Amino acid sequence: ALKCSKISNTQFRDSCVVELAKAKNDAAVCDLVVTSRARGFCQEQIALSQDNVSICAEILDEYWHDNCYYHLAIGAGDYQLCANIMVVEQNIDCVKKVAMDVNNAELCERLSPVNKGECLWDIVVETKDVTLCARFSNQVNIDACVYKVAKLTEDTKLCDKIKINDIKQTCKGYFNEKETALSS
């Protein structure tokens, strides 16, 4: 601490104090940082190392405030922490990442149609759960989803659940080609 205080350049001094705070794992040391941006970074680093969400609430810099909640939400798999993120795009990304990390399709329902679709698709691919396909908003996406699960699980019977004939034929053709390739 004494060495940091002897540095006259504010930027270098703040960097020194941040490293000291990280070494001591003490958020109170961050109060010695002069610039609000660097102080926010310092507090975020301590919050992450202590897994302490209450420190995020104390961060005044919006960027580091949001990043703090973002990383802790994803780390804990707790979408409710995403609600504290002020920047809309990062808030949405947070919910989407938590939903995909914990394979919770219910969380995808909280998103806009485009983000919901991406979120559901990733969970379907990960879980291979064909029942999730019904959550898509239109028949083309539902059938494409069923086709994807059929391919992932090697379940030819799923092709019969596809309603749009072109997609159904593509699904059946996929398995016919595989069968032909194996028999030759």
In short:
By secondary structure, the protein is an all-alpha fold. The protein has helices spanning 2-5, 10-24, 36-50, 53-58, 62-76, 88-101, 105-108, 113-127, 139-153, 165-183.
- What ranges have pLDDT less than 50 throughout 5 or more consecutive residues? none
User: Which percent range fits the helix content?
Assistant: 55-70%
Strand content: under 5%
Shape: elongated
Order of helices and strands: HHHHHHHHHH
Calculate Rg over CA atoms: 24 Å
Task: Describe the overall structure.
With 184 residues, the protein is mainly alpha-helical. Helices cover 66% and strands 0% of the residues. The chain is built from ten helices and no strands. It has helices at 2-5, 10-24, 36-50, 53-58, 62-76, 88-101, 105-108, 113-127, 139-153, 165-183. Helix 3 (36-50) packs parallel to helix 5 and helix 5 (62-76) packs parallel to helix 6 (88-101). The chain is elongated and about 75 Å long. The chain starts with a helix and ends with a helix. The mean pLDDT is 93.
